[in-house]
Amino acid sequence: MDFDNFIRFLIEAKKNGYAGSNANVEVLDDGGKKVEFSEGSFKYRDTWRGFNPFFGEEIVWEENKEIFIMNYDGRVIKDKDEIEETYAFLKKALERATPQFPFRGLPKFREGDLEYNLRQYGNRMGFFSGRESINRGKKTIYRGVFRGTIVPKVN
After folding, report:
1. Using CA of residue 17, residue 21, residue 24, residue 25, what is the dihedral sign?
2. 94 — alpha (psi -120 to 50), left (phi > 0) or beta?
3. Helix residue ranges per DSSP H, 53-122
4. Which residue among 73, 75, 94, 137 is buried most deeply as judged by most CB within 10 Å?
């Protein structure tokens, strides 16, 4: 696998997925939601369930072989009357994924009185995990976690 090409694709897929304003969200028969994106030999799928809380999974295939899996969950824990605003801000944070931080967003992103914070553990070439939060002032209003791995190539 060309790791740099994979990371470029993953970032593009996320911008065309849940975080993207042009995402084509499909509602599944079981109530879940799905977004797919393909480019060249890569295919991306993000499926999630729930709203507050929510949980989901992202998978990337290259030439029909799984090469990346990540699951995530989160919830607004305060200011529940502002869930829509909080999730809209989360999408803005997730759109800012970079090659150094490709799995969710930047370590810090601020807009108005909201601030997204990310702590990522592990490395980009293997198992990783992390925590994210959104604060309004000194109050944490959203928390999320994620974990995943690059799938080892099996001969």
Report:
1. positive
2. alpha
3. 83-94
4. 94
Mean pLDDT of all residues belonging to the chain: 91
Rounded CA gap, 110 and 96, in Å?
Answer: 12
Give the mean model confidence (pLDDT) for residues 12-34.
Answer: 86
pTM of the model: 0.90
- Residue 35 confidence (pLDDT) above 90: yes
DSSP state of 119: E
**Structure tokens given for 92:** 């803005």
Which residue, 31, 134, 144, 147, is CA-closest to 88?
A: 134
End-to-end, the C-alpha distance of the chain in Å comes to: 13
Rounded Cα distance between 148 and 104, Å, is 11
The pairs formed by 95-103 with CB atoms below 8 angstroms and a separation of 24 or more are 95/14, 95/15, 95/19, 95/20, 97/10, 97/11, 97/14, 97/15, 98/11, 99/4, 99/7, 99/8, 99/11, 102/7, 102/10, 102/11, 103/10, 103/70, 103/128, 103/130, 103/146, 103/148
